[in-house]
């Protein structure tokens, strides 16, 4: 039978996550005898799966080597480099390259069923513009930042609210495209592993080198977030123009 | 006695034009009893082949001869529940005012060996042709029926059409018959339902007929949709970074690849990181030949869109004027979806005809002297008509001012199609500054080519960029944050609406202008002038009633799975697609009528059940907001 230490070592070596002792004990005691007889690597996989769906405040170690400094948000620090691997979970994601209003319009199109194939409506048309008329590729069209018909895929960049195992909150800014960070793909509660990230003016800079998406979600948070998204956007537009 | 052939055109003017060309100008004109516009023209013509020399009577109808209506007992508004109109028996009868024209065709057919139909070569024309045939057969059951295929009224073209007749296309005629029946049933059922119900709600609607049409409503839907987007819009502040470099006495503006972001703190942080980096590095220097393509051959939709944009005429006027130019033999048939020229058409000959013109004659000459290029081919071909093009030259002083504008546009567009693309050189400089990327673009127009004749397109050289070396570094002169606000879209304009109808499959190119005119006439939509002088445009703004109807119908289907609002294009679009299936022979008229009626009946039942949604919307916009 696998010992808790073996499982913890396994998780650390495959995912760079230091699991919390009480959570691991709970996990092991919740598994049935038959499950406990499987090889440690398989049991570790099950543990990781549960971990990704868990709240890391409960499931991961709060040791300072794998958490954010408590003063990470201080805006008067121009730049600092954090050391090591720090797991965080996503509490919010916003597309700051697209106006709130066009995100709301995109949500409403989905609500009206216009994202269904064959039910799309063409709403804007460039009068007098032959789409092929110039051999220049049209940069402007990708730059206007309007959300696509399918609902939310703006072009980003995205602004995330991240939380570490100790509960410290920090803003993450997608400085370069990071695979998997999109409004529809990234679930609330998804885990992200920060590696030696740069923090500027209290914001963690996310790049493919400094941030790896581990996946997962916290079902309860994700549902509430999605259900309330339109209302939150509407509320924000009320003050955004001032 | 020589054999007699009866020819029937769609309009008197076409009958006269064809008679003139076939007879070489000598024909006798006879009035017909009961209609002052329709004339019979008599002359001889050698049809060649089996027909040989024949005496000809050329006459016309005035559009459709017959109309479809419900049997008498269903015609009164209160005669039956509106839902019954989906099945109530209908009959086709000759319109009262068309009786003398029908008589004339029956009489003339008695002495004729054959009937040549000269209605316009499109779906509607095919159906009118079938109506003419029915009358002729009633006069002479053994009459042989042929159809002349033509797309303009230029002399040689018309004579060839007379020598090479084809058969009437029954499929197309059936598609129109199906459309007529559907428009009648669906239109009458919904019109009666909503009129009777809404009259009781609001005093202002008491004496009003609130008509419904399956094209009109989605057309109105687009106008309302845009109106609400404008109304509900909330401006938002955004921030961006701009980088400026002074070099070689020139000021170069570099634009941010991210354009702008909606988070000030993030942009400030990003700018700071640029400034900290100090040096920007040139990561791309792209110089390449570029071109602006000559336009595609002209279709009806394009004529209406470009026309209402550049000629300051509404689409209905443009079509009327174009129709007149076609009838007089100056341009080809103006109702076409085709944006590719057939290989057989002699484009150079058409260009040569423009030599006498003071404005573009010289340009036409240059094309023939070596600058001619084969036009681009678009993706559409209705297999009936070529793209709209000039067929002969006409002196501007023979045209009124609207005709002049439309003719000039058609000619310039045609000459542009046959020209070389405009050529230029573009330069793109990209720099990396900190972690951010910026770019500057330059354009030099080298050869204007088609732009010289197609005055409607603009393509200008930009400011000249100084020299940059790939990999070089420099310190920008300035890097700043700028702030801006998002702006609401504009209200819909007519050219946009035509574009939207086309893109969403509402109406055919031939009928779009009519639907727009209809929703204005019904007072669902009003026009408003934006701006003044040459840049002014007519905006379409819905009336309170227009908004109420759209909101009401949208609410009717809210929450119903798989049910779509009548204000949306889908139902009509599907109906139009089924018409095409009749035309191609894959579906029969009866199948299509049944299927389409079933779709609309379902919405009708929902509407009846949830009529309060419609009433509430009318109350909201016509009573409450009218008094507040």
From TrEMBL, chain A:
The record's Pfam families line, in alphabetical order, gives:
RMI1_N_C, RMI1_N_N
Regions of biased composition (Polar residues) lie at 134-151
What InterPro entries does this protein's entry cite? RMI1_N (IPR049363), RMI1_N_C_sf (IPR042470), RMI1_OB (IPR013894)
Gene Ontology cellular-component annotations:
nuclear body; RecQ family helicase-topoisomerase III complex
Quick one: where's region Disordered?
A: 128-151
Q: Which GO terms describe its biological process?
A: double-strand break repair via homologous recombination; resolution of meiotic recombination intermediates
The chain positions of domain RecQ mediated genome instability protein 1 OB-fold read 69-229
Q: Which residues form the RMI1 N-terminal domain?
A: 12-59
Q: By its UniProt entry, which PANTHER family does this protein fall under?
A: RECQ-MEDIATED GENOME INSTABILITY PROTEIN 1 (PTHR14790:SF15), RECQ-MEDIATED GENOME INSTABILITY PROTEIN 1 RMI1 (PTHR14790)
- Give the family this protein belongs to, as stated in its UniProt record: Belongs to the RMI1 family.
Q: What is this protein called?
A: RecQ-mediated genome instability protein 1
Q: Which organism is it from?
A: Penicillium bovifimosum
Automatic annotation (TrEMBL), chain B:
Q: Which InterPro entries match?
A: Topo_IA, Topo_IA_2, Topo_IA_AS, Topo_IA_cen, Topo_IA_cen_sub1, Topo_IA_cen_sub2, Topo_IA_cen_sub3, Topo_IA_core_domain
E.C. number(s) listed in UniProt: 5.6.2.1
Q: Where is the Toprim domain?
A: 4-151
**A Pfam short name:** Toprim
Reaction catalysed? ATP-independent breakage of single-stranded DNA, followed by passage and rejoining
| Keyword match Iron | no
Q: Name one GO molecular function term.
A: DNA topoisomerase type I (single strand cut, ATP-independent) activity
This protein's source sits in the domain of life called Eukaryota
Q: Which PANTHER family match?
A: DNA TOPOISOMERASE 3-ALPHA, PROKARYOTIC DNA TOPOISOMERASE
Family per record: Belongs to the type IA topoisomerase family.
For this entry, the protein name equals DNA topoisomerase
């Amino acid at each position: 039978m696998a010992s808790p230490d073996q499982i913890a070592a396994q998780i650390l070596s495959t995912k760079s996550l230091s699991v919390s002792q009480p959570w691991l004990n709970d996990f092991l005691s919740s598994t049935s005898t038959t499950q406990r007889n499987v090889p440690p690597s398989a049991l570790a996989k099950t543990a990781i799966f549960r971990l990704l769906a868990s709240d890391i405040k409960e499931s991961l170690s709060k040791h300072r080597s794998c958490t954010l400094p408590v003063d990470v948000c201080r805006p008067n620090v121009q730049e600092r480099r954090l050391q090591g691997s720090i797991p965080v979970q996503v509490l919010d994601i916003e597309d700051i390259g697209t106006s709130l209003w066009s995100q709301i319009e995109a949500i409403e199109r989905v609500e009206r069923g216009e994202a269904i194939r064959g039910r799309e409506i063409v709403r804007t048309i460039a009068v007098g513009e032959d789409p092929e008329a110039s051999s220049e590729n049209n940069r402007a069209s990708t730059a206007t930042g309007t959300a696509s018909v399918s609902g939310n895929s703006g072009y980003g960049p995205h602004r995330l609210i991240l939380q570490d195992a100790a509960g410290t909150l920090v803003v993450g800014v997608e400085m370069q495209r990071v695979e998997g960070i999109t409004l529809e793909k990234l679930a609330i509660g998804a885990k992200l592993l920060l590696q030696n990230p740069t923090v500027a003016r209290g914001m963690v800079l996310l790049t493919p080198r400094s941030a790896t998406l581990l996946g997962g979600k916290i079902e309860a948070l994700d549902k509430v977030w999605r259900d309330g998204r339109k209302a939150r956007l509407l509320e924000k537009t009320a003050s955004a123009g001032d | 006695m020589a054999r007699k052939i009866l020819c029937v055109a769609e309009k008197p003017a076409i009958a006269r034009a064809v008679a003139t060309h076939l007879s070489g100008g000598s024909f006798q004109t006879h009035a017909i009893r009961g209609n002052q516009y329709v004339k019979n023209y008599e002359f001889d013509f050698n049809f060649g082949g089996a027909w040989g020399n024949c005496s000809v009577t050329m006459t016309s109808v005035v559009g459709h001869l017959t109309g479809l209506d419900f049997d008498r007992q269903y015609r009164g508004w209160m005669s039956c529940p509106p839902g019954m109109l989906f099945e109530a028996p209908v009959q086709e009868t000759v319109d009262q005012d068309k009786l003398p024209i029908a008589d004339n065709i029956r009489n003339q057919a008695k002495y004729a060996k054959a009937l040549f139909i000269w209605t316009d070569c499109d779906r509607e024309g095919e159906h009118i042709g079938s109506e003419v045939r029915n009358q002729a057969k009633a006069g002479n059951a053994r009459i042989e029926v042929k159809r002349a295929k033509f797309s303009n009224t230029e002399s040689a073209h018309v004579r060839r059409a007379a020598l090479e007749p084809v058969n009437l296309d029954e499929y197309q005629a059936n598609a129109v018959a199906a459309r007529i029946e559907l428009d009648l049933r669906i239109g009458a059922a919904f019109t009666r339902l909503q009129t009777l119900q809404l009259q009781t709600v609001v005093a202002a609607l008491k004496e009003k007929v609130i008509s419904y049409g399956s094209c009109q409503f989605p057309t109105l839907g687009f106008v309302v949709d845009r109106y609400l987007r404008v109304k509900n819009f909330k401006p938002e502040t955004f921030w961006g970074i701009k980088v400026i470099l002074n070099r070689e006495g020139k000021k170069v503006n570099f634009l941010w690849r991210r354009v702008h972001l909606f988070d000030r703190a993030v942009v400030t942080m990003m700018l700071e990181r640029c400034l900290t980096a100090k040096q920007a590095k040139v990561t791309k220097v792209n110089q390449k030949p570029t071109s602006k393509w000559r336009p595609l051959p002209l279709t009806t939709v394009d004529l209406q869109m470009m026309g209402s944009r550049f000629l300051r005429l509404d689409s209905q006027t443009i079509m009327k004027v174009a129709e007149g130019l076609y009838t007089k033999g100056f341009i080809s048939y103006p109702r076409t979806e085709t944006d590719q020229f057939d290989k057989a058409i002699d484009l150079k000959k058409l260009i040569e005809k423009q030599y006498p013109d003071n404005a573009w004659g010289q340009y036409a000459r240059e094309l023939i002297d070596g600058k001619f290029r084969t036009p681009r081919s678009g993706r559409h071909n209705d297999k009936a008509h070529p793209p709209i093009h000039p067929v002969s030259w006409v002196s501007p002083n023979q045209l009124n001012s609207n005709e002049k504008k439309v003719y000039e546009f058609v000619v310039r567009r045609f000459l542009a199609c046959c020209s070389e693309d405009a050529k230029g050189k573009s330069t793109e400089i990209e720099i990396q500054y900190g972690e951010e990327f910026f770019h500057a673009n330059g354009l030099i127009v080298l050869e204007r080519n088609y732009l010289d004749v197609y005055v409607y397109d603009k393509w200008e050289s930009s400011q000249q960029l100084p020299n940059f070396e790939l990999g070089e570094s420099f310190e920008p002169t300035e890097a700043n944050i700028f702030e801006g606000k998002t702006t609401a879209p504009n209200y819909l304009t007519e050219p946009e609406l035509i574009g939207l109808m086309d893109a969403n499959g509402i109406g055919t190119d031939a009928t779009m202008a009519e639907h727009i005119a209809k929703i204005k006439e019904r007072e669902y939509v009003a026009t408003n002038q934006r701006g003044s002088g040459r840049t002014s445009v007519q905006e379409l703004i819905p009336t309170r009633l227009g908004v109420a109807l759209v909101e009401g119908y949208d609410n009717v289907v809210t929450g119903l799975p798989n049910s779509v609002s009548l204000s949306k294009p889908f139902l009509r679009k599907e109906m139009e697609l089924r018409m095409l299936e009749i035309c191609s022979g894959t579906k029969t008229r009866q199948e299509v009528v049944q299927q389409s009626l079933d779709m609309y009946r379902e919405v009708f039942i929902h509407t009846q059940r949830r009529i309060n949604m419609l009433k509430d919307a009318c109350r909201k916009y016509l009573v409450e907001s009218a008094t507040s």
